[in-house]
C-alpha cells in the first residue's frame, strides 16, 4: 500500500511540475491522434455522405464492409501495415516503419470505418426526412448535401470525437508499426505498458491520469453535443 501511495504522489508531482518526458509523450500522442483524425475525416466524411445519398448496386456491400471494419482488431491492423511498409514490403522504399507516419496510417485504418459508417447512417436519416421537400423545391444535389451536413453538424462532431477516442487509446497497432522508440514514437498507451513492465509506476500512473482526463473530456463533450443536438431538433 505504501508503494502504491508513493507512486501516486510521484505521478501527481510529475504532472503538476510539467515533467519534460511526460509532456513530450503527451504532445506526440495528441499530434499523432489529431492528424489521424483530420485525415480520416477528409476521407471518411465525403465517402460516408456519398454512400448515404447515392443508390448504386454494390452500396450495401460497401456499407457492410465498413461496418465490419469498425471491429477490426488493432494488432491485426498493425501487422498488415507492418508487412506493407517493412523493407521487404511493397511500400518499404518509403522508409516510414517505426515513425509517427506509420502510426498515423495504422490509426487511420482504425478510424476511417467509424467515420464512414456513422456519418453515412446520420446523413441517410436526414436525407429521408428532407428528400421530398428538396425535390418539391428543386434543390440541387450539391445544395442538398450542404444542408444535410449543416443539419447533422452536432452528430458529425460526435462521430469525430468517437474517432479521436479510438485513436488516443490505441496501443496494439501503434506499438507494432511505431516500435515504441524513446523520443520518436513513444505515445501514452505504449509508454504505460512499457513503464509498468519496468516497474516505473509513477510515470505510468501519471500518463494514465492524463489519459483518463482526456477520455473524461471526450465523453463530456459527447454528452454535451448530444444534448445540444436534441435541443436543436426540437426548435
Instruction: Quote the average pLDDT.
Output: 86
Distance between the termini: 54 Å
Order of helices and strands: HHHHHHHHHH
CATH superfamily: MetI-like
Overall geometric form: globular
The share of residues in extended strands comes to under 5%
How would a textbook summarize the main sheet?
A: none
Please work out how many helical segments DSSP would assign. 10
At CATH level 2, the architecture is: Orthogonal Bundle
Number of structural units classed as domains: 1
Can you walk me through this structure?
Helices cover 80% and strands 0% of the residues. The chain has ten helices and no strands. Helix 2 packs parallel to helix 5, helix 2 packs across helix 7 (153-168) and helix 5 crosses helix 6 (141-151). The longest helix is centred in the middle third of the chain and has 37 residues, at 100-136.
